[in-house]
Amino acid sequence: MLGLLIDFKEVKELEYLLKKEMEELLLDLGDKRIDCLVKRAMEERYQLLFRIFKRFASPSDCTKYMRLLRQKTN
User: Fold this and answer.
1) What pTM, to 2 d.p., does this model score?
2) Mean pLDDT of 33-60
3) Which of 5, 6, 33, 45 fits 10 for a cystine, CB–CB 3.0-4.6 Å?
4) Residue of 12, 13, 23, 10 whose CA lies nearest to 50
5) What single-letter DSSP state applies at residue 57?
6) Sign of the four-CA dihedral 21, 24, 30, 34
7) Average pLDDT of span 23-34
8) Average pLDDT, the chain
9) Angstrom distance (rounded) from CA 32 to CA 34
10) What pLDDT is recorded for position 72?
11) To the nearest whole percent, how much of the chain has pLDDT over 70?
C-alpha cells in the first residue's frame, strides 16, 4: 500500500484528468469499428481509472461515471 499527500488543488486536477480520460474511453467503447479485444482492454483501463476516481470524487460524481459490465450471452 502506498500513501499520497496532495492538496485540494491537486485533488481537483486529478479529478479533472480522470474524468476526461474516462469520457474519452466511454466514447471509444461506443464505437462499433473497434475490435472486441481492444474494447476489453479499454474496459479494464476504464475500471482501473474509475477505482482511482472513487477515492477522490463525491458519490454523486461517481454515479455519473458508473458503468455496468455487460455480459454477452451466446
Assistant:
1) 0.81
2) 94
3) 6
4) 23
5) S
6) negative
7) 94
8) 88
9) 6
10) 43
11) 91
